[in-house]
């Protein structure tokens, strides 16, 4: 009604500071302020209103002035209660405050919530604060270990466990040993109806199948008959013309019930299986549908439907399929997700009546239409009748002239009433399981019946390694472990696939962990096993539930986690790890040993992974997945030629011209370096143009490149020589100290003197750029007393106090760098001494005066 004003806080309006610039001035000198948690003062959090929420807070405060009372209408879970608490803390209303709670967005539910408000539940707030503080300490402190000792970019309570799940599956694939076996497929017929069957035993000895082999050794582990090609082919020959009879027939009825309506995780999984969408793409489509009023809230782990939704689903099923497709009583679904917080309904079409997908498709985009169709079908099917049918299994026997009793099995499946399957059938991550849902019809068979043998085929089989995770199956696995929340799965997968983190890559729909992921998991499993244990997060959720129920307290729980109680906590383990972790060992993944017993490892270095055997090194192409790197392949890569090639001979000097690939890219080289003479001049080199490759560059092209810098001519206006050459920042002209850019590399040898004179006749087109603001601020340096800031330089981010610069390690997130780490980086840089030694000033008097002039205070300030 008009007497209520409904406003959104757009989620949390306060949080722990994300970077140094968000820390209030009063706290910048505190060592703990970068983390935002005072661990020595009962884990007191430092909450700030981020810049992105200042306008929201200002608007809410303005509208609060005219309000007679405040209703807090956030979700009834830990997160929702925390949002309400932060609103109270920041807005400080002087009017009555009521907490309203509802689990479905219907008129009846809202009216009930307004009529029966409650007080804010501070125990729920405590539980949420505990989770937030733990995640900050876990992420910041373990990330510090990773960037100082390992190759990882960041750690996270859920993220790191997800990386471990991928790595463990890849390890299983690496350890897997394939095994081959043969079987026999048969085609029989009865009453002109053909059907397939498979050999299962010979003389009552069961024929080996894939499940009878050990995955780690490939050896047969069960007492089975192992057929090879010759054995299978010979048996097929002996079965020719032999009569076949039915030994037994077994018929069973089956019944299948519909799945629950979608929650966030199951929507992401089905969108991946049926629509080929990534989790983030599916959530974007769902977000758009929600914002435009087509579906209910899409971040939920509740399978409940409101009474209105159940009525709408039953009505839609009745109208479309008939009364017999709707059960007499509505269906309800029990919670199956660990630690589910049922603040919302399941994801369903919005409204008291459901719009058919055909009505919606013309109003939304393609992704949105497909996701709505999925949600509509799943919701309607959830309120439909069971599908029923029957299965028939038959055993058939054929005895060869050599008295070999061969038994075959055939099975059939028939749906007698499709029920909910008229609307929807859930997908599967196993393609073979999809085939199980199809009808397989057998002709009428009875014990003793004779059937015709239409043919036998020997079939070769190879055992398969465990399948890699897809986005859908990874979400299912994390959900099964109780790790993460439905609303976080898309962002978790996004983090894994982020090129800056380099933890996983996609091959088709499969998620393949990188060697960086292997190194990170190796470090965490070795030195912090309890914090990547699969049970840690799930048990933590149980502990948070106890805090929310008032059966446990926040501060003792956090103290136990951080400082330890009986077993080491996070802080002592990190302190110990920073002193004892061997970075070289932790970043080496053992592959195996070659024929001589020499160990081969993958080392994850600053510039990526590479192979090592003793002192030998070899490249590791990025397209080789970890499970494809065998010892033999590794040896091949280590011993492969470097890729350098001899192009020819320079006719003027007689020296050999080489094409090589170096640290800074491909180049050509004239002659070789005399290793025996330290004073020998270095051979002349020149970088290849971007259009050239080491494999294709010709001798003429190489010799031309080696003529750089090319003298274009003399400028007639001042008599200075003009040259053209390639440099670190691209092709350019040079006349004395005046340089000008060239449009492309080919211009180095094509540009004429007249064109260069015209270029120099124009004013230079560059000037001083405006100084960029610092990336982060860290307070004063204890040595110099100057403020420390992080800046972006030509070669990456660095920290500086204005006198000393220290590079931030590659891949380290500036936002995760603490003031202590910045100070430590500067201290390490100072300990190494200046990077470039300054030459002593000449002793001539004029030079001394010039040097003194440069040191005037005014000049220093200007600089």
Description:
This protein is globular. Helix 2 (78-91) packs across helix 4, helix 5 crosses helix 15 (515-527) and helix 7 packs across helix 11 (366-381). With 863 residues, the chain is of the alpha+beta class. Residues 433-437 and 835-863 have low confidence and may be disordered. Helix content is 33%, strand content 21%. The strands form eight sheets. Strands 5-6-10-9-8-11 form a six-stranded antiparallel β-barrel. Strands 14-15-16-17 form a four-stranded antiparallel beta sheet. Strands 18-19-20-21 form a four-stranded antiparallel beta sheet, covered by helices on one side.
Radius of gyration based on Cα positions: 36 Å
Provide the β-strand percentage band: 15-25%
Which of globular, elongated, flat, extended, rod-shaped describes the shape?
globular
Biggest sheet descriptor: 6 strands, antiparallel, barrel
Within the largest sheet, what's the order of strands?
A: 5-6-10-9-8-11
Unreliable stretches, pLDDT < 50, 5 or more residues?
433-437, 835-863
Task: Tally the beta strands.
Answer: 29
Helix share of residues?
25-40%
Terminal CA distance: 64 Å
* Average pLDDT number: 86
Tally of DSSP helical segments:
26
Secondary-structure-derived class: alpha+beta
